[in-house]
């Protein structure tokens, strides 16, 4: 496919993860390749090994970007 799933967003530490997911849903929720519920995974979770990795969805409305940054071990480059 001619799809490039790479996307870079700059967000503040207090930005809610659910707000980021809502933004992504507004932008790409109707894409032909989109199906199911959007979830964010740690960068190290490869598609074939997603089971067992923590993920974040719209239901995580109480978590901020800083909370997720802590949960993934405060990496030098924060990627999901």
From TrEMBL:
<keyword id="KW-0539">Nucleus</keyword>
<dbReference type="GO" id="GO:0003682">
    <property type="term" value="F:chromatin binding"/>
</dbReference>
<dbReference type="InterPro" id="IPR055315">
    <property type="entry name" value="Cramped-like"/>
</dbReference>
<dbReference type="GO" id="GO:0005634">
    <property type="term" value="C:nucleus"/>
</dbReference>
<keyword id="KW-0238">DNA-binding</keyword>
<dbReference type="GO" id="GO:0007389">
    <property type="term" value="P:pattern specification process"/>
</dbReference>
<protein>
    <submittedName>
        <fullName>Uncharacterized protein</fullName>
    </submittedName>
</protein>
<dbReference type="GO" id="GO:0003677">
    <property type="term" value="F:DNA binding"/>
</dbReference>
């Amino acid at each position: 496919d001619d799809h490039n799933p790479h996307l870079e967003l700059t967000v503040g530490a207090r930005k809610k993860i659910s707000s980021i997911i809502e933004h992504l849903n507004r932008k790409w929720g109707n894409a032909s390749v989109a199906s199911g519920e959007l979830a964010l995974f740690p960068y190290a979770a490869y598609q074939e090994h997603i089971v067992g990795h923590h993920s974040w969805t719209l239901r995580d409305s109480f978590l901020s970007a800083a909370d997720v940054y802590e949960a993934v071990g405060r990496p030098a480059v924060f990627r999901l």
